[in-house]
Amino acid sequence: GDELVGAVHRLISHADEVRRLEVRTNADTADDAARARRFGAQGIGLCRTEHMFLGERREAVERLILAEDEAECEAALAVLEPLQRKDFLELLSAMDGLPVTIRLIDPPLHEFLPSMEDLAVKVALAKERGEDPGHDATLLAAVERLHEQNPMLGLRGVRLGLVIPGLFAMQVRAIASAAAELKKQGKDPRPEIMIPLVGAVQELQLARDEVEGVLRQVAEDEGVEWPTPIGTMIELPRAAVTAGQIAEEAEFFSFGTNDLTQTTWGFSRDDVEGSFFSTYLEKGIFAVSPFESIDRDGVGALVRMGAERGRSSRPDLKLGICGEHGGDPDSIHFFHEVGLDYVSCSPFRIPVARLEAGRATLS
Ligand code: PEP
Ligand code: MG
């Protein structure tokens, strides 16, 4: 056993010496980040922030959704901000000295709205008993207003940030003030801010202006400075096609191949695997699920196009991938060929990603 473990370690160390691709991790908590660091992660390539709004924070989220004016919105955001600040303080501490790409909130709305069915039942029962459904009725009306037939194609990512005033600004203030505090402690926080689901440079421009304004303000108030690259995910075909324009507003791109696969094939990420994929696999339409291994001819071609167009407008554009494909051996070879700078995958896939990145260089 020991001999084998030693051999694997030597192999991975050798891969580290030759590989060109950096290997980062997808991690949303300090615990995951610390684990990934032990596995050799060179940073966080994707911190998803939407889970940070669930659990006991849901109440504030409901108030945010229910808000009828900016003051109510601000009150709800003021509850969330110190909690977010703590999240980022822990995460940036765990990854001190390494890049931490924090993606601004990108929930499919249905995942963090209260259930419309449950609310409807509650309201109906209250009415039956001749009681005032009160808060539940207001909440139900808001949830009905926001209900979407296709939440994955709906009010998500940058769209949500542009629609709910102050939401992105709150997150960025939390990130920046956490970084400022660490900086004052002599630490080396390296946050990067990533805008999700961008399809047009105009969306990114608006979000970026807001982000930059907040970063400037916090740096001024706190009297410390640190660089914060701002970038975007490329996860819609339109983003890949217009990557030349988008790169003018982005210091980095991270390919979101989960959504890019969904939107390129028109397959629903949530439903498709159970319904007809087995037939497709049997009939040889594809040999592996395109959600697992990169589809070079379609999704892969868009990744290549996005990388080329992005780099031709901004030669120093940093390029990564943070979809599930970032931990898939065959896909890693493809990302190496395309010339990406890093792959980002779940903590447990890091050793394999390091090995494959090395093999990709050698072949
Ligand atoms: C993606 O779409 O590939 C991605 C990494 O984002 P998420 O899975 O959170 O949508
Ligand atoms: Mg995505």
UniProtKB/TrEMBL annotation:
Q: Does the keyword Magnesium apply?
A: yes
Give the active-site positions. Answer: C322 (proton donor)
Residues binding Mg(2+) are E235, D259
The terms under GO molecular function for this entry are: ATP binding; kinase activity; metal ion binding; pyruvate, phosphate dikinase activity
The answer to whether keyword Transport applies is no
What start and end residues bound the annotated signal peptide?
none
Spans traversing the lipid bilayer: none
Q: Where does substrate bind?
A: R48, R103, E235, G256, T257, N258, D259
Q: Which UniProt keywords apply?
A: ATP-binding, Kinase, Magnesium, Metal-binding, Nucleotide-binding, Pyruvate, Transferase
Name the source's superkingdom.
Bacteria
The PEP-utilising enzyme C-terminal domain extends over 8-357
What is the similarity comment for this entry? Belongs to the PEP-utilizing enzyme family.
Protein name per its UniProtKB record: Pyruvate, phosphate dikinase
Q: Which organism is it from?
A: Kribbella voronezhensis
Span covered, complete protein: 526 to 888 of 888
